[in-house]
Protein backbone atom coordinates (compact mmCIF):
# COMPACT_ATOMS: atom_id res chain seq x y z
CA UNK A 1 0.00 0.00 0.00
CA UNK A 2 1.59 3.27 -1.13
CA UNK A 3 -0.16 6.54 -0.76
CA UNK A 4 1.30 10.01 -0.77
CA UNK A 5 -0.06 12.89 1.27
CA UNK A 6 1.05 16.50 0.94
CA UNK A 7 -0.14 18.39 3.97
CA UNK A 8 0.31 22.12 3.39
CA UNK A 9 3.59 21.55 1.53
CA UNK A 10 5.58 24.60 0.42
CA UNK A 11 8.93 25.17 -1.23
CA UNK A 12 10.96 28.35 -1.17
CA UNK A 13 14.15 28.28 -3.23
CA UNK A 14 17.20 30.34 -2.35
CA UNK A 15 16.56 33.96 -3.26
CA UNK A 16 13.15 33.68 -1.58
CA UNK A 17 11.47 32.34 -4.69
CA UNK A 18 8.27 30.62 -3.57
CA UNK A 19 7.83 27.78 -6.10
CA UNK A 20 5.16 25.78 -4.22
CA UNK A 21 2.65 27.29 -1.81
CA UNK A 22 0.60 25.38 0.78
CA UNK A 23 -0.33 22.38 -1.37
CA UNK A 24 -2.71 19.77 0.06
CA UNK A 25 -3.00 16.52 -1.90
CA UNK A 26 -3.80 12.88 -1.24
CA UNK A 27 -2.50 10.54 -3.93
CA UNK A 28 -4.11 7.15 -3.37
CA UNK A 29 -2.58 3.70 -3.53
CA UNK A 30 -2.35 2.42 -7.12
CA UNK A 31 -3.40 5.71 -8.67
CA UNK A 32 -1.98 7.18 -11.87
CA UNK A 33 -1.94 10.75 -10.68
CA UNK A 34 -0.98 13.61 -13.02
CA UNK A 35 0.45 16.99 -11.98
CA UNK A 36 -0.55 19.40 -14.76
CA UNK A 37 0.19 23.05 -15.35
CA UNK A 38 2.14 25.53 -17.45
CA UNK A 39 5.92 25.81 -17.35
CA UNK A 40 7.22 27.07 -14.03
CA UNK A 41 4.09 26.27 -11.97
CA UNK A 42 6.00 23.99 -9.60
CA UNK A 43 5.17 20.50 -10.92
CA UNK A 44 8.75 19.23 -11.01
CA UNK A 45 9.48 20.77 -7.63
CA UNK A 46 6.62 18.77 -6.08
CA UNK A 47 7.82 15.58 -7.77
CA UNK A 48 11.38 16.15 -6.60
CA UNK A 49 10.19 16.78 -3.03
CA UNK A 50 8.29 13.46 -3.13
CA UNK A 51 11.45 11.74 -4.42
CA UNK A 52 13.55 13.32 -1.67
CA UNK A 53 15.75 15.19 -4.18
CA UNK A 54 14.50 18.54 -2.90
CA UNK A 55 13.93 19.54 0.71
CA UNK A 56 10.40 20.43 1.82
CA UNK A 57 10.45 24.00 3.19
CA UNK A 58 7.12 23.89 5.04
CA UNK A 59 4.33 21.40 5.67
CA UNK A 60 4.45 17.63 5.85
CA UNK A 61 5.03 14.99 3.22
CA UNK A 62 3.61 11.59 4.16
CA UNK A 63 4.57 8.33 2.44
CA UNK A 64 2.87 5.07 3.42
CA UNK A 65 1.34 6.54 6.53
CA UNK A 66 4.53 8.10 7.94
CA UNK A 67 6.07 11.57 7.75
CA UNK A 68 8.84 11.36 5.15
CA UNK A 69 10.27 14.92 5.21
CA UNK A 70 13.56 13.70 6.65
CA UNK A 71 13.93 10.43 4.69
CA UNK A 72 16.71 10.06 2.10
CA UNK A 73 15.71 9.16 -1.47
CA UNK A 74 16.97 5.60 -0.91
CA UNK A 75 14.74 5.14 2.13
CA UNK A 76 11.65 6.08 0.13
CA UNK A 77 11.79 3.22 -2.43
CA UNK A 78 10.81 5.46 -5.31
CA UNK A 79 11.89 5.22 -8.96
CA UNK A 80 12.02 8.22 -11.23
CA UNK A 81 12.15 8.74 -15.01
CA UNK A 82 13.02 12.13 -16.48
CA UNK A 83 12.47 13.75 -19.87
CA UNK A 84 15.68 12.13 -21.14
CA UNK A 85 15.84 8.84 -19.27
CA UNK A 86 19.40 8.41 -18.02
CA UNK A 87 20.97 5.11 -19.10
CA UNK A 88 24.55 3.87 -18.73
CA UNK A 89 25.96 4.23 -22.27
CA UNK A 90 28.48 1.40 -21.86
CA UNK A 91 25.83 -1.14 -20.82
CA UNK A 92 23.32 -2.86 -23.08
CA UNK A 93 19.56 -2.44 -22.59
CA UNK A 94 19.56 -5.73 -20.67
CA UNK A 95 22.60 -4.61 -18.64
CA UNK A 96 20.91 -1.33 -17.76
CA UNK A 97 17.80 -3.13 -16.60
CA UNK A 98 19.83 -5.73 -14.67
CA UNK A 99 21.90 -3.11 -12.88
CA UNK A 100 19.46 -2.20 -10.07
CA UNK A 101 18.85 -5.90 -9.37
CA UNK A 102 22.58 -6.61 -9.21
CA UNK A 103 23.08 -3.73 -6.78
CA UNK A 104 20.31 -5.20 -4.63
CA UNK A 105 22.09 -8.59 -4.79
CA UNK A 106 19.19 -10.67 -6.13
CA UNK A 107 19.32 -14.17 -7.59
CA UNK A 108 20.90 -13.95 -11.08
CA UNK A 109 18.65 -16.41 -12.92
CA UNK A 110 15.57 -14.86 -11.38
CA UNK A 111 16.79 -11.37 -12.31
CA UNK A 112 17.36 -12.43 -15.94
CA UNK A 113 13.84 -13.80 -16.06
CA UNK A 114 12.46 -10.49 -14.70
CA UNK A 115 14.40 -8.43 -17.24
CA UNK A 116 13.14 -10.64 -20.09
CA UNK A 117 9.55 -10.37 -18.89
CA UNK A 118 9.56 -6.59 -18.44
CA UNK A 119 11.43 -5.92 -21.69
CA UNK A 120 8.76 -7.97 -23.50
CA UNK A 121 6.02 -5.89 -21.86
CA UNK A 122 7.85 -2.73 -22.99
CA UNK A 123 8.39 -3.98 -26.57
CA UNK A 124 12.21 -3.82 -26.34
CA UNK A 125 13.03 -7.51 -25.93
CA UNK A 126 14.52 -7.75 -29.43
CA UNK A 127 17.05 -4.99 -28.63
CA UNK A 128 18.12 -6.29 -25.25
CA UNK A 129 21.76 -6.67 -26.38
CA UNK A 130 22.05 -3.21 -27.90
CA UNK A 131 23.62 -0.15 -26.30
CA UNK A 132 21.59 3.03 -25.71
CA UNK A 133 23.51 4.95 -28.38
CA UNK A 134 22.09 2.68 -31.09
CA UNK A 135 18.44 3.15 -30.03
CA UNK A 136 15.80 5.67 -31.06
CA UNK A 137 14.50 8.20 -28.51
CA UNK A 138 11.36 6.16 -27.89
CA UNK A 139 13.31 2.94 -27.40
CA UNK A 140 15.67 4.66 -24.97
CA UNK A 141 12.71 5.94 -22.93
CA UNK A 142 11.26 2.42 -22.85
CA UNK A 143 14.59 1.11 -21.55
CA UNK A 144 14.73 3.88 -18.92
CA UNK A 145 11.20 3.00 -17.79
CA UNK A 146 12.22 -0.66 -17.65
CA UNK A 147 15.23 0.16 -15.52
CA UNK A 148 13.11 2.24 -13.17
CA UNK A 149 10.37 -0.37 -12.79
CA UNK A 150 12.53 -3.49 -12.54
CA UNK A 151 12.95 -3.25 -8.78
CA UNK A 152 9.21 -2.91 -8.32
CA UNK A 153 9.33 0.46 -6.55
CA UNK A 154 6.49 1.34 -4.25
CA UNK A 155 6.18 4.69 -6.01
CA UNK A 156 6.93 5.56 -9.63
CA UNK A 157 7.61 9.21 -10.52
CA UNK A 158 7.76 10.45 -14.12
CA UNK A 159 8.78 13.98 -15.13
CA UNK A 160 7.64 14.77 -18.69
CA UNK A 161 8.99 11.43 -19.96
CA UNK A 162 7.51 11.86 -23.44
CA UNK A 163 8.21 15.50 -24.18
CA UNK A 164 11.31 14.88 -26.31
CA UNK A 165 9.48 12.38 -28.58
CA UNK A 166 7.51 13.10 -31.75
CA UNK A 167 3.70 13.15 -31.67
CA UNK A 168 3.16 9.60 -32.99
CA UNK A 169 5.57 8.04 -30.53
CA UNK A 170 4.11 10.05 -27.66
CA UNK A 171 0.66 8.63 -28.32
CA UNK A 172 2.01 5.08 -28.60
CA UNK A 173 4.15 5.28 -25.48
CA UNK A 174 1.53 6.97 -23.35
CA UNK A 175 -0.82 4.05 -24.02
CA UNK A 176 1.92 1.62 -23.07
CA UNK A 177 2.93 3.46 -19.90
CA UNK A 178 -0.71 3.64 -18.81
CA UNK A 179 -1.21 -0.08 -19.49
CA UNK A 180 2.00 -1.03 -17.72
CA UNK A 181 1.55 0.97 -14.52
CA UNK A 182 -2.10 -0.07 -14.31
CA UNK A 183 -1.17 -3.75 -14.68
CA UNK A 184 1.52 -3.53 -11.99
CA UNK A 185 -0.70 -1.40 -9.73
CA UNK A 186 2.27 0.86 -8.90
CA UNK A 187 1.24 4.26 -7.50
CA UNK A 188 2.47 6.69 -10.17
CA UNK A 189 2.87 10.45 -10.15
CA UNK A 190 3.28 11.84 -13.66
CA UNK A 191 4.24 15.42 -14.49
CA UNK A 192 3.22 17.05 -17.75
CA UNK A 193 2.20 20.41 -19.23
CA UNK A 194 0.29 18.61 -22.00
CA UNK A 195 -3.45 18.61 -21.31
CA UNK A 196 -4.13 15.76 -23.77
CA UNK A 197 -1.56 13.55 -22.05
CA UNK A 198 -3.08 14.40 -18.67
CA UNK A 199 -6.68 13.81 -19.75
CA UNK A 200 -5.97 10.51 -21.50
CA UNK A 201 -3.69 8.94 -18.90
CA UNK A 202 -4.78 10.10 -15.47
CA UNK A 203 -7.04 8.56 -12.87
CA UNK A 204 -6.98 12.01 -11.30
CA UNK A 205 -5.32 15.31 -12.19
CA UNK A 206 -4.05 18.16 -10.00
CA UNK A 207 -3.84 21.49 -11.84
CA UNK A 208 -1.23 23.95 -10.59
CA UNK A 209 -0.66 27.60 -11.27
CA UNK A 210 2.17 29.68 -9.84
CA UNK A 211 2.85 27.04 -7.19
CA UNK A 212 -0.77 27.02 -6.02
CA UNK A 213 -3.18 24.10 -6.41
CA UNK A 214 -6.16 25.24 -8.51
CA UNK A 215 -8.15 22.02 -8.78
CA UNK A 216 -8.02 18.24 -8.27
CA UNK A 217 -10.33 15.66 -9.80
CA UNK A 218 -10.86 13.02 -12.45
CA UNK A 219 -10.33 14.19 -16.04
CA UNK A 220 -14.12 14.38 -16.52
CA UNK A 221 -14.62 16.37 -13.33
CA UNK A 222 -12.04 19.01 -14.05
CA UNK A 223 -13.06 19.33 -17.70
CA UNK A 224 -16.82 19.45 -17.20
CA UNK A 225 -16.90 21.02 -13.77
CA UNK A 226 -13.68 23.06 -13.34
CA UNK A 227 -13.18 24.94 -10.07
CA UNK A 228 -11.64 28.04 -11.64
CA UNK A 229 -11.43 30.07 -14.85
CA UNK A 230 -7.76 29.10 -15.13
CA UNK A 231 -8.56 25.37 -15.11
CA UNK A 232 -11.45 25.80 -17.58
CA UNK A 233 -9.20 27.73 -19.96
CA UNK A 234 -6.14 25.50 -19.55
CA UNK A 235 -8.13 22.41 -20.50
CA UNK A 236 -9.86 23.99 -23.47
CA UNK A 237 -8.70 23.51 -27.01
CA UNK A 238 -9.96 25.40 -28.97
CA UNK A 239 -9.96 28.12 -26.32
CA UNK A 240 -12.97 28.70 -24.13
CA UNK A 241 -15.01 31.88 -24.73
CA UNK A 242 -14.67 33.94 -21.57
CA UNK A 243 -17.03 36.89 -21.33
CA UNK A 244 -17.88 39.44 -18.69
CA UNK A 245 -21.53 40.08 -17.85
CA UNK A 246 -23.53 41.92 -15.24
CA UNK A 247 -26.02 39.76 -13.32
CA UNK A 248 -29.55 41.10 -12.78
CA UNK A 249 -32.13 39.17 -10.81
CA UNK A 250 -35.50 39.68 -12.53
CA UNK A 251 -38.75 38.54 -10.98
CA UNK A 252 -40.68 35.92 -13.01
CA UNK A 253 -37.73 35.36 -15.36
CA UNK A 254 -34.56 34.43 -13.52
CA UNK A 255 -31.12 35.98 -13.49
CA UNK A 256 -30.30 37.90 -16.65
CA UNK A 257 -26.64 37.93 -17.66
CA UNK A 258 -26.20 41.20 -19.49
CA UNK A 259 -23.27 41.23 -21.93
CA UNK A 260 -24.16 44.62 -23.39
CA UNK A 261 -25.06 43.56 -26.90
CA UNK A 262 -26.61 40.24 -25.76
CA UNK A 263 -28.49 38.86 -22.77
CA UNK A 264 -28.83 35.31 -21.54
CA UNK A 265 -31.23 34.23 -18.82
CA UNK A 266 -30.54 31.65 -16.13
CA UNK A 267 -34.09 30.61 -15.15
CA UNK A 268 -35.12 30.37 -11.49
CA UNK A 269 -35.39 26.57 -11.70
CA UNK A 270 -31.66 26.43 -12.52
CA UNK A 271 -29.68 25.74 -9.32
CA UNK A 272 -27.13 28.44 -10.22
CA UNK A 273 -29.73 31.22 -10.09
CA UNK A 274 -29.81 31.27 -6.28
CA UNK A 275 -26.00 31.64 -6.13
CA UNK A 276 -26.28 34.44 -8.70
CA UNK A 277 -28.65 36.48 -6.51
CA UNK A 278 -25.73 37.56 -4.33
CA UNK A 279 -24.08 38.95 -7.50
CA UNK A 280 -27.12 41.09 -8.37
CA UNK A 281 -25.91 44.24 -10.14
CA UNK A 282 -22.31 42.99 -10.07
CA UNK A 283 -20.02 41.64 -12.77
CA UNK A 284 -19.46 37.90 -13.27
CA UNK A 285 -17.40 35.90 -15.75
CA UNK A 286 -19.10 33.47 -18.11
CA UNK A 287 -17.23 30.60 -19.79
CA UNK A 288 -18.69 28.96 -22.89
CA UNK A 289 -16.76 26.21 -24.67
CA UNK A 290 -16.84 26.40 -28.48
CA UNK A 291 -18.98 23.25 -28.73
CA UNK A 292 -21.58 24.73 -26.37
CA UNK A 293 -22.40 27.38 -29.00
CA UNK A 294 -24.55 26.02 -31.80
CA UNK A 295 -25.64 27.98 -34.91
CA UNK A 296 -29.45 27.96 -35.15
CA UNK A 297 -32.19 29.53 -37.19
CA UNK A 298 -34.60 31.13 -34.76
CA UNK A 299 -33.83 30.13 -31.17
CA UNK A 300 -35.15 31.82 -28.05
CA UNK A 301 -33.85 35.33 -27.36
CA UNK A 302 -32.77 34.49 -23.79
CA UNK A 303 -30.52 31.67 -24.97
CA UNK A 304 -28.89 33.14 -28.08
CA UNK A 305 -26.08 35.50 -29.03
CA UNK A 306 -25.88 37.04 -32.48
CA UNK A 307 -22.63 37.68 -34.31
CA UNK A 308 -21.05 38.07 -37.73
CA UNK A 309 -18.62 35.40 -38.96
CA UNK A 310 -15.20 36.90 -39.51
CA UNK A 311 -12.97 33.87 -40.02
CA UNK A 312 -13.47 30.16 -40.76
CA UNK A 313 -10.77 27.60 -40.08
CA UNK A 314 -10.70 24.02 -41.35
CA UNK A 315 -9.59 21.57 -38.65
CA UNK A 316 -10.00 18.21 -40.36
CA UNK A 317 -13.01 16.71 -38.60
CA UNK A 318 -14.80 20.07 -38.38
CA UNK A 319 -14.66 23.82 -38.96
CA UNK A 320 -14.06 26.46 -36.35
CA UNK A 321 -15.74 29.79 -36.86
CA UNK A 322 -14.91 33.13 -35.25
CA UNK A 323 -17.78 35.57 -34.96
CA UNK A 324 -17.69 39.22 -33.91
CA UNK A 325 -20.54 39.65 -31.43
CA UNK A 326 -19.62 43.03 -29.97
CA UNK A 327 -18.86 41.47 -26.58
CA UNK A 328 -15.45 42.10 -25.00
CA UNK A 329 -13.80 38.83 -24.10
CA UNK A 330 -11.58 38.41 -21.07
CA UNK A 331 -8.08 36.97 -21.01
CA UNK A 332 -8.24 33.96 -18.66
CA UNK A 333 -4.55 34.31 -17.79
CA UNK A 334 -5.18 37.62 -16.06
CA UNK A 335 -8.07 36.46 -13.87
CA UNK A 336 -7.40 35.54 -10.26
CA UNK A 337 -3.66 36.15 -10.50
CA UNK A 338 -2.06 35.95 -7.10
CA UNK A 339 0.68 38.20 -5.85
CA UNK A 340 2.16 35.26 -3.89
CA UNK A 341 3.85 33.89 -7.06
CA UNK A 342 6.35 36.71 -6.78
CA UNK A 343 9.38 36.53 -4.51
CA UNK A 344 8.34 36.05 -0.88
CA UNK A 345 10.34 39.11 0.21
CA UNK A 346 10.40 42.39 -1.75
CA UNK A 347 13.57 42.78 -3.77
CA UNK A 348 16.17 44.73 -1.87
CA UNK A 349 18.70 47.17 -3.28
CA UNK A 350 21.32 46.45 -5.90
CA UNK A 351 20.96 46.00 -9.65
CA UNK A 352 19.52 42.45 -9.43
CA UNK A 353 16.93 43.60 -6.90
CA UNK A 354 15.89 46.58 -8.99
CA UNK A 355 15.62 44.41 -12.12
CA UNK A 356 13.47 41.91 -10.26
CA UNK A 357 11.22 44.72 -9.10
CA UNK A 358 10.92 46.09 -12.62
CA UNK A 359 10.15 42.72 -14.22
CA UNK A 360 7.45 41.92 -11.67
CA UNK A 361 5.49 45.10 -12.41
CA UNK A 362 3.47 46.11 -15.49
CA UNK A 363 4.77 48.93 -17.67
CA UNK A 364 3.67 52.47 -16.97
CA UNK A 365 4.16 52.30 -13.21
CA UNK A 366 0.69 50.75 -12.59
CA UNK A 367 0.17 48.48 -9.63
CA UNK A 368 -0.05 44.74 -10.37
CA UNK A 369 -3.60 43.31 -10.63
CA UNK A 370 -5.17 42.38 -7.28
CA UNK A 371 -6.98 39.12 -6.66
CA UNK A 372 -10.32 40.79 -7.35
CA UNK A 373 -9.16 42.05 -10.73
CA UNK A 374 -11.50 41.48 -13.62
CA UNK A 375 -8.81 40.62 -16.18
CA UNK A 376 -7.86 42.36 -19.37
CA UNK A 377 -10.65 43.03 -21.78
CA UNK A 378 -10.12 42.78 -25.48
CA UNK A 379 -12.70 43.07 -28.19
CA UNK A 380 -12.51 39.69 -29.75
CA UNK A 381 -14.41 36.92 -31.47
CA UNK A 382 -16.64 34.17 -30.16
CA UNK A 383 -15.26 30.80 -31.24
CA UNK A 384 -17.70 28.02 -32.12
CA UNK A 385 -17.67 24.67 -33.89
CA UNK A 386 -19.50 25.15 -37.15
CA UNK A 387 -20.37 21.46 -37.76
CA UNK A 388 -22.70 20.57 -40.63
CA UNK A 389 -24.33 24.03 -40.69
CA UNK A 390 -21.21 25.85 -41.77
CA UNK A 391 -21.95 29.54 -42.29
CA UNK A 392 -20.27 31.76 -44.87
CA UNK A 393 -17.71 34.39 -44.03
CA UNK A 394 -19.49 37.70 -43.36
CA UNK A 395 -22.77 35.94 -42.58
CA UNK A 396 -24.79 36.89 -39.51
CA UNK A 397 -25.30 33.89 -37.20
CA UNK A 398 -27.52 33.20 -34.21
CA UNK A 399 -25.66 31.05 -31.72
CA UNK A 400 -27.67 29.08 -29.18
CA UNK A 401 -25.87 28.70 -25.88
CA UNK A 402 -26.09 25.35 -24.14
CA UNK A 403 -26.99 26.90 -20.77
CA UNK A 404 -26.41 23.64 -18.89
CA UNK A 405 -22.76 23.66 -19.97
CA UNK A 406 -22.22 27.39 -19.54
CA UNK A 407 -19.94 28.06 -16.55
CA UNK A 408 -20.29 31.06 -14.28
CA UNK A 409 -17.39 32.41 -12.22
CA UNK A 410 -16.96 35.26 -9.79
CA UNK A 411 -14.48 38.01 -10.65
CA UNK A 412 -11.90 36.19 -8.48
CA UNK A 413 -11.98 33.36 -11.05
CA UNK A 414 -13.79 30.83 -8.79
CA UNK A 415 -17.03 29.10 -9.78
CA UNK A 416 -20.05 30.68 -8.12
CA UNK A 417 -21.44 27.24 -7.22
CA UNK A 418 -19.51 24.50 -5.44
CA UNK A 419 -17.90 21.95 -7.78
CA UNK A 420 -18.73 18.25 -7.33
CA UNK A 421 -15.80 16.00 -6.36
N1 LIG B 1 16.91 25.06 -8.01
C1 LIG B 1 16.14 26.13 -8.14
N2 LIG B 1 16.48 27.33 -7.62
C2 LIG B 1 15.69 28.42 -7.75
N3 LIG B 1 14.51 28.41 -8.38
C3 LIG B 1 14.10 27.25 -8.92
C4 LIG B 1 14.88 26.06 -8.84
N4 LIG B 1 14.22 25.06 -9.49
C5 LIG B 1 13.07 25.61 -9.94
N5 LIG B 1 13.00 26.91 -9.62
C6 LIG B 1 11.90 27.84 -9.91
O1 LIG B 1 10.74 27.36 -9.29
C7 LIG B 1 9.59 27.51 -10.13
C8 LIG B 1 8.96 26.16 -10.36
O2 LIG B 1 9.86 25.37 -11.12
P1 LIG B 1 9.49 23.89 -11.56
O3 LIG B 1 10.65 23.34 -12.33
O4 LIG B 1 9.02 23.12 -10.39
O5 LIG B 1 8.26 24.16 -12.52
P2 LIG B 1 7.59 23.21 -13.60
O6 LIG B 1 6.13 23.44 -13.50
O7 LIG B 1 8.06 21.82 -13.44
O8 LIG B 1 8.13 23.84 -14.94
P3 LIG B 1 8.69 23.11 -16.26
O9 LIG B 1 7.53 22.40 -16.88
O10 LIG B 1 9.18 24.26 -17.09
O11 LIG B 1 9.79 22.21 -15.78
C9 LIG B 1 10.11 28.16 -11.40
O12 LIG B 1 9.85 29.55 -11.31
C10 LIG B 1 11.59 27.88 -11.40
O13 LIG B 1 12.29 28.90 -12.04
Automatic annotation (TrEMBL):
Instruction: Please list the residue ranges annotated as the ABC transporter domain.
Output: 4-235
Put simply, this protein is called Multiple sugar transport system ATP-binding protein
Q: Where is this region: Disordered?
A: 333-389
- Keyword Nucleotide-binding listed? The answer is yes
Cite the SMART domains for this sequence: AAA
Molecular function via GO: ABC-type transporter activity; ATP binding; ATP hydrolysis activity
Q: Which InterPro entries does the record match to this protein?
A: AAA+_ATPase (IPR003593), ABC_transporter-like_ATP-bd (IPR003439), ABC_transporter-like_CS (IPR017871), ABC_transpr_MalK/UgpC-like (IPR047641), Mo/tungstate-bd_C_term_dom (IPR008995), P-loop_NTPase (IPR027417)
Mention any Pfam family matching this sequence.
ABC_tran
Instruction: Return the PROSITE patterns for the record.
Output: ABC_TRANSPORTER_1, ABC_TRANSPORTER_2
An example GO CC term for this entry is: ATP-binding cassette (ABC) transporter complex, substrate-binding subunit-containing
Q: Which keywords does this chain's UniProt record carry? A: ATP-binding, Nucleotide-binding, Sugar transport, Transport
Amino acid sequence: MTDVVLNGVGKVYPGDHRAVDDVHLHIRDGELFVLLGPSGCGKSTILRMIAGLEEVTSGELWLNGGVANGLSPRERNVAMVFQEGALYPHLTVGGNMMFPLEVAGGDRAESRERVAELSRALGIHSMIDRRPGTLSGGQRQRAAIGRALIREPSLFLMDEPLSSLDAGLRTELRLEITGLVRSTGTTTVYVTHDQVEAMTMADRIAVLRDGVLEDVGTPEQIYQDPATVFVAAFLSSPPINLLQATAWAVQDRGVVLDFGSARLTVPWDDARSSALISHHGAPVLVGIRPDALVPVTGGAEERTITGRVRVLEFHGQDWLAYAEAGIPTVDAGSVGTRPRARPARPASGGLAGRLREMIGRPAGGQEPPREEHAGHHRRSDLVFRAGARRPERGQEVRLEVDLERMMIFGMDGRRITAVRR
